[in-house]
Design a protein that fits this description.
Structural class: alpha+beta
Strand content: 25-35%
Strand order of the largest sheet: 8-5-10-3-17-16-13
CATH architecture of the largest domain: Sandwich
Radius of gyration: 26 Å
Number of helices: 6
Number of domains: 2
Helix content: 10-25%
Largest sheet: 7 strands, antiparallel
Number of strands: 17
Shape: elongated
Order of helices and strands: HHEEEEHEEEEHEHEEEEEEHEE
């Protein structure tokens, strides 16, 4: 603080603090390890997420946010189906290749699900007579007194009518109540079963072929985790990095997550965090009248005012969690808007 730290030291401290805060706010003990073959769903929701929340490529090809709360407010979660071997044979038989299992982390399952959709990719119907495909979605229910082994229960029935002869399409179906059931009782999460006609088995991507990994089924969940508090703070100075200003001032600080080796952050790749540096001697305290009054009352204090953030804002982030879920979240207090003496 003040003369005890150089501007370079203030920058380094700010970066290390940001790294700790990001993990804390996301409820992570360490950086998630993402398998190298992990791919993003090549689907409308992923692109719409990037568009909706203002993520776009800059001139250098970096994914940045247009936006330039204690815990992150999770808003959208994308969970890709993962393979799972079943050790049972349900009463109503089904083909294991038609099963979809979705794994949810504890942090995600604690949120309230407002909406949830199952997305399926339909391949191009090159030699198909009909352009309509029947579809049934079942949940796999745990064994009970009536059934010694897990069995399937119908969730919904649909008809895919927009099959195209020359290109694949994505279709989505609401599945909120089932996801809520899984969140309420994780032991019931044994997955779902997708059943269709013989022709549909070849068109709906349930067991991806090589190169079709981004087309496998996935869930998009819109969740709510309330708790945002906004506070008014005082104005401050803005300076360039090479400024000779001695007073408390806000300086630019470009954070590049790739430099940390944080490949688990999808977007943004980089953002402007800013940091505070400078002195708060008595001659400058008239700029901060509230702080000056506090100092007069606390003259016995041994530490003077420090240059510190007086207003901060959140950033949006799209990232992989420990379980491979793709999550959109708002992280509070990650960008310094103003600096002052306090």
């Amino acid at each position: 603080c003040g003369a005890s730290c150089t501007r370079g030291q203030e920058r380094e401290m700010r970066v290390e603090t940001l790294k700790r805060h990001i993990l804390d706010k996301l409820g992570l003990k360490r950086s998630p390890t993402i398998p190298r073959n992990r791919t993003l769903p090549r689907a409308p929701p992923m692109q719409s997420l990037l568009d909706q929340y203002g993520f776009y490529p800059d001139r250098s090809g970096n994914i940045v946010s247009a936006e330039d709360i204690t815990q992150a407010e999770t808003e959208t979660v994308i969970t890709v189906a993962t393979p799972r071997k079943y050790s049972f044979s349900p009463v109503a038989p089904f083909n294991e290749s038609g099963c979809c299992f979705f794994k949810f982390g504890r942090h995600v399952s604690r949120t309230k699900v407002n909406k949830a959709f199952l997305w399926l990719h339909v391949r191009a119907a090159e030699n198909m007579q009909s352009t309509s495909i029947p579809l049934k979605i079942y949940r796999i229910a745990p064994a009970s007194s009536a059934y010694p082994e897990p069995y399937k229960i119908l969730i919904s029935s649909h008809k895919i009518t927009d099959v195209k002869p020359n290109e694949g399409v994505w279709v989505s179906y609401p599945i909120r109540d089932q996801v809520r059931r899984w969140f309420h009782n994780p032991a019931e999460n044994l997955g779902i079963v997708i059943e269709t006609s013989e022709a549909g088995k070849d068109l709906i991507v349930l067991d991806p072929k090589p190169g079709e990994e981004p087309l496998q089924p996935f869930l998009v969940m819109h969740t709510h985790d309330p708790g945002t508090v906004r506070r008014k703070r005082m104005a401050g100075l803005n300076c360039e990095q090479d400024s000779n200003e001695e007073r408390c001032c806000r300086y630019p600080l470009q954070v590049d997550f790739r430099e940390f080796g944080w490949d688990w952050i999808i977007a943004p790749n980089t953002y402007q965090a800013y940091y505070c540096a400078g002195d708060c001697p008595p001659i400058f305290l008239q700029k901060y009248p509230h702080t000056h009054l506090v100092q007069q009352v606390n003259k016995a204090g041994s530490v003077g005012p420090c240059c510190t953030p007086t207003k901060m804002s959140n950033i949006s982030m799209l990232y992989f969690d420990d379980d491979g879920n793709i999550i959109y979240a708002k992280l509070p207090d990650m960008k310094v808007d103003r600096c002052g003496c306090s």
